[in-house]
Every structure is written in structure tokens, then in C-alpha cells.
Amino acid sequence: MSDPVNSGQDSGDVSPSLVPQKHGGALLTGGLPGNSGGSGRQASLVREAMREALSSRVVVLEDIADGRAIRRVKVGKTGEEVEAWVSPEPGDRIRALDVLAKYSIGVATDVTVDLVRDRLVQTIAAIRRGLPANLAAPLLAELQEIWRT
Q: What is the pTM of this model?
């Protein structure tokens, strides 16, 4: 069996080795040569997409919280199968109420580190776009000192 890391390479370059992982797979040491990786998707964009997905499913949470039948199951009764609607258990209703309260009223820590970091990055970019470099540099240096304390 050939080494997947070194296969197809004729140059004398040293390739990263594979490091076995607990789950049975393996990762390259240092990642792929020449790939510095990306910054990924901004956390604020991910949160916005999740809020939109959640908002379209609020009706499901309301049905669960109100104890409305939400699921059709087949049950055996005297040898024959009939369809029955099943209402949520009390614990499911409480969890649905908790989710509805958490996302409607909010929790005490609505401001996250990711949110502050994203807004700070956007603010710095706006300063660099809106001001000449000779004005932006001292302002950004002053702001950097403020955020360090």
C-alpha cells in the first residue's frame, strides 16, 4: 500500500507525516504544504444564519410547549397496527418553554467575546477605509492601548 502523503511526488521535498487520531483517521503534521488556512466564516454570520433557521421553527416549539400532538407513530393493538398522534412528554414541554424564553427574553450574557471581536474588526476596517493612513495609524495605536487594559 502506498503512502498517501508521498504518492505522486518526485521531488526530494520532505512531506508532512500522518499523525493517527483517536477516531481512526489521521492528520498531516503542519497541514498541507503551502496552505496557510483561512479565517473561516465570521461568527456573526453563522449566528445570523442560525437565528433565521430558528425563527422559521418557532411554531414547532410552540406546539411542543402547548402539548399539541406532534408525531404520528404506529402502535400495535390486538395484533393490528393503527396510527396514533403522540403528545410531547412534560419534560419536552418544559424544554420547549425554556428555549422559547431564552431566545425571546434573552439571557444575561447576550454579548459574547465573538460578537465584540467581530465588531472590533469591523470598526478597525472602517477606520482604515475612512481615514488617511497618517490619521488612522495614531488613532488605531491609541485604541490598541485602550483595549489592552
A: 0.39
Q: What is the pLDDT along the chain (149 residues), one digit of tens a residue?
A: 445 444 444 455 667 788 888 888 888 777 777 777 777 777 788 888 888 888 888 888 898 899 887 776 766 666 566 666 778 889 999 999 888 888 777 666 677 788 888 889 999 999 999 999 999 999 999 988 888 86
Any idea where the domains of the chain sit in the sequence?
43-104, 113-148
| CA gap 3, 138 in Å, rounded | 53
CB under 8 Å to 99, separation ≥6 — which residues? 61
Q: Which residue has the cell 472602517?
A: 126
Contacts of 70 (CB under 8 A, 6+ apart): 60, 63, 64, 85, 86, 87, 88
The answer to whether 16 and 4 have CB atoms below 8 angstroms apart is: no
